[in-house]
Structure formats: structure tokens, C-alpha cells
Model the fold of this input.
Amino acid sequence: MSIMIEKAPRGYLKVHDLRKDYGAYAAIRNIDLDIPSGELVALLGPSGCGKTTLLRCIAGLVKPSSGKILIDANSILQIPVNRRGLGMVFQSYALFPHMTVAQNIAFGLRMRKLPKLQTTRQVAEILNLVQLEDFAERYPNQLSGGQQQRVALARALVIKPKVLLLDEPLGALDANLRESMQVELRQLQQQLGLTTILVTHDQQEALAMADRIAVMRAGVIEQFDTPRVIYDRPASAFVASFIGEMNRVRVRVAKRWVGGVHLQAGPEGGILIAEECNGLAEGEYGLAMVRPEKMLLCDAEIEDGTYVNKTDGILIGVMFRGDRILCIVDTPLGQMTTVRQSGTNSPDIDLTIGRKVSVAWRAKDTHVFHDA
Amino acid sequence: MQTLSLWLRIYVGLLTVFFLAPILIVVSVAFTSAGFVAFPPTGFSLRWFVKVLNGSQFLLPLWNSIQLGIASTLVSMLLAVPAAITLVRHRVPFGDVVIAFLLSPLSLPTIILAVGLLFFVAKVGLGSSFAGLVAGHAVITVPYVLRTVLGVYSGLNREVEEAAQVLGAGGFDTFRLVTLPLILPGLLAGGIFSFLLSFDEVAVALLLSNIDTTTLPVAILSYLVFNYDPAVAAISTIQMAVVIGLLFLLERIFGVQRVVFS
Done:
């Protein structure tokens, strides 16, 4: 009887209190990430938020000012970039233009002094995996953008990295190709069980691909959670408006009680109700936000008693988007956008522009944040 | 392709004659059987080539010039490539000033440089050695190599080198396998300019060479002072043949046309 030895988890990535200063400017600070083996984490944020700096710190291309980076509980900060054994796909793909596809992919194996026969076999295997068998002898400039992207991925995967780093890997592809590559890349990553960090500024990409998303702004992580939670319960006004659409109303906290919060909206003094208010004190000003798809467009009375927030207005715009219809309503609280599924059996209402309509939403869909 | 208009053809024709005529005259005079330089040449003979190639009067300087051209080109490559890489990749304080300084020999008359160099090599004890000559020519040729390498290297995607590093290449492997092949066109173009410049250079060589290190242009110049026979035309023809042969070789190996004119 042989004793089963459980394999140590591969590619458990931990980042602790990481910081990178450029002079007086902190590109990233207080970065903590705990990424179990096999998880895909998206670093999402606008340009300049530090997401690429963070990725380059993990890769070893940038030396952090302080903090720790651990893979499988071992610090990698002292290991130079060429010995970290990580896979990386660059935004520009960074293929070697003077080498064929096969030579590009074999480069990492060549650096590891792998025997020729094995190299050839592994290159063939990975070419098969990314469906580029027929392109082995082509040069990068003879390939389409999508094919180059696959070569870059194959080149990163063939060395069997513990962690795969992707820097806007799909940014240079056109929209249709990008979507199919998202699916393909995600399938491949799950199939290989590869710990992966994806840097992107595209919220759709992050929502579609990631197990968890770290939303970054100005060098710090604002929220680190699953796409669902980030979308449904954003931690800050920034996260709420960076991911998805939001209707915003400026409010003042009128009264807090156990079951919820009363908010005073606008000078007319309409009262809105929310379930919680992110620690805002009574009398403080803040922003109330509601997702368009959580807002109900209605004629007058609604039977569902949970739609406690209601405001009347005039329908000023209707945009048909195929699967859904955007309706813009001018209300005393400002312009509100609502979304209706088209072609569903929800009660149809008259969408003539200029009509008097109402919008309503529930207390639990009202997010309240500090006005930042 | 569009056909050239009549005027353009005439223009191109005149320009071609203007460029080629002096060369063709020298080459044709080299094959004269007469004892003096005259055009058109009278008779055909190889006697001036025989004269030039027998005796060390021109052969030694020709060999010196080839060695000097190769040596100063190699030296300027060794200086220019690391300089270009450092200046492009790292935030060098006053980088622009450093570049301007390194390119400054371009704007100095070589005779002025030569006089300065004469005092300098004498002071540091190089005297009129071959090393002094190489150093002097390298000063003149470095800007050409630096210029072309800078041009190619600054257009190079930095991520390509980083990709090599992430894949396991150390500094030297990255340079050898990625950077060097990618800057090779610029390096070769600069190298060709550098060799031709050194091969052709008179002022520095005149002041820094001695009897053993005389270069071909200096030898031709000194010969012309007292002689006016077609031997000069013959050695000039040989000189041109060396250059054309070299360019032809490089063209076959690397495609100079692409390198120099791209």
C-alpha cells in the first residue's frame, strides 16, 4: 500500500501591505490580496489606478517599496524576474518578431535548458491547445490579432507557471473577438486550474471572467469580492458608478432607525427610504444610488408594497437596445434611467414621449454613500 | 508603377552622370598605358595596377586602412550600443544633454578634432600608435552608430524585452537573443557608415599616423604631392573595389538595401 500524499496547493498567491512609491507619489499602497490556487482575480480600475503597477510588482518587473508577495507561503520578492517562473501575457503581446511561432513558444523552455525532443513535443501540445497547429512556422507579423494573442498565451502557458498574469490581454481585439476570447480564456484557465490575475479596465470583462474582482482607485483596493457582491452591494460610490449604471440622487440623512434610513431628497423634501446608509450620521449629506434595472416604470399605483420609493415624472426618452429598452424619465429628483426587458410578458405600458409616468424602487435597492 | 515624365528622366539622367562621371574617369584612367593622367585614356594596360600592387607604397596603407576601419567600427559599436540601451531604457539625468554630447563630433570640423586629438594622445602617451588612430576615428564614427542604434532601439517595444525576462532570460540572454537581433539593422547601417567614414578619413589620420600606420587616403595624398601618374587612379580603383565588394557581401548576408534605406 502506498500512502497518498496530498499535493501541496499550487499557486497560492498572497500580497500583504504592498506599496510602491515613485518619489512622493504612491502608485499603490495598502494592497492586500489573498488568492487561493486556481482562482481568477481581476484587477479592475480606470487608467492610472495602479493595477498594472501591482501586476508588474508580482511579475518582478517593478520592485515594490515595501510589503510582501508570497507564492505558496514563500516570499518571491528576492527572486529576480527571470527566476520567478510566472507566465505573463502583455497588452502588446510582446511576441519576438524575429522568431517563428514555434520559436516564440519554445523560448521559455529553451531558457530552462529542456532537451530538444521534449521542447518540440511540449510546443506541439500547447499549439494544439490554442488551436494553432498549422501556424508553427509563421512569423508574428503574418498572424491576425487574435492569433497573436493565442501565441502570447501559449508562450506563457508552456512553462507551466504557478501564476498567470494577464495585462489587458484582450484590449487590442475587436469587440466580437474579445467576447469569444473571454469565454475561451476562462475555460482554459479553469481547465488548467491556474491561479490567474487579470488586469483590465473593462468592467464587462471583469464581471464575465473573474471569480473575484479587486476594484482599484488611486493606488488602493476599494473593494475585493465576487462579481455578484460587487455589483449588488458596492462598497463605495466609486465602485457603484464604475461598475454598471447608477441613478444618483443627492440626499441628506433625515432619520436612522433600526429598520432603515429616511433620506431627504432635493429641496422639495421628498423622503426616500433605504435599508442602510454606510455609516452616515443623521444630518449628513450623501448620494443615493439605484441601478436602472431595479427601477420600475409604472403608470400610477403599484400593487407590490415593497416599492416604497416613488417619484412622478415625464418620459423624455426611449432607446431601443434590442434585448432591452432604456427609458429616461425627468423627475423632480433629476433624470432617472430605467431598463425594461423587451418582449417579456411584463405588463406593457404606453411609451409615448412626453407622457406622465412614475418610477418606483425598493428600499433594499437604494445604496447610500458618502458623497465622494 | 507610374512612368516617369520626360523632365524627370532628364533630371535623373543628369544627376546620374554627375555622380558617376568622376568615378568613371578615375577608373578608366587607371587602365591607361600612358605615363600620365589624361582623359580619355590612351591604350589599355594593367601596368599601373602592377606597379601599385608590387611594392608596399600603397599595399601597406590599404591594409592599415582596412584594419583601422574595422577596429574603429567595432570600438564605436561597443561604445554606442550600451550607451543607446542605457539612454533609452533608463531615466538618465540630463539624458538629452548626454545624447547631444555624444553626437557633437558630427558638428565639429574633423581637422579641429584632429588637432585636439594630436595633443591629447601625445599627453596620454599613445603617441602616433595604431591605438591612437583607432581612438581618433572612433570619436568620429561613434555618433553615426549611436544615431542609427538609438533610432531603432527607441522604436522597439519595451515589453518584448520584459517578456524575455519573465520567460526566464537573464540580462545577457535577453540582449543576445532578443535585443541584439532586433537592433541589428540599425547596428549594421551605423557600422557601414562608420567603416566608410574611417576608410575615407584624411585629417585625423594625417596627424595621428606614423610611417607604419599610414592609411590609404594619407598615402594617396602624399603621393599626389610629388607624383602625377595614373598609379593614384589605380589604387583609388582598388579602394572603390574594396568598398563595393564589402557592400555587396553585406547585401548578400543581411540585405543592406533594407538596412540602410529602411
Chain A touches chain B through 27 residues (CB under 8 Å). DSSP finds eight helices and 20 strands in chain A. The longest helix of chain A spans residues 175-192. The longest strand of chain A covers residues 309-320.
